[in-house]
Design brief:
Shape: elongated
Number of strands: 0
Structural class: mainly alpha
Number of helices: 3
Largest sheet: none
Order of helices and strands: HHH
Helix content: over 70%
């Protein structure tokens, strides 16, 4: 590779890196937007808490229902009496 090609490639890489960087006011702008909309954070936290709760409760209740049967009992005597 010639030195000219290396310089051109370095220049192109530098331009790509500069294009990816946030503008100088990018972070403060993001902070202002988050401060304006606190309900988004609250909704996200509530949704994650609900997902964790469901993930912890549902498998246990499904396993209990499968191994122990239904908790619903038919009315009348059970097991049926041996009378004719």
């Amino acid at each position: 590779m010639s030195p000219v090609n290396v310089e051109e490639q370095l220049r192109a890489l530098r331009q790509q890196a500069l294009a990816r960087e946030l503008p100088p006011d990018g972070w403060p702008r993001l902070q202002r937007r988050l401060r304006r909309e606190p309900w988004r954070r609250a909704a996200l936290v509530a949704g994650l808490a609900l997902a964790v709760l469901v993930a912890g409760v549902v498998p246990g209740s499904l396993a209990r229902a499968r191994c122990c049967g239904s908790t619903h009992r038919p009315t009348g005597s059970w097991p049926p009496s041996p009378r004719p």
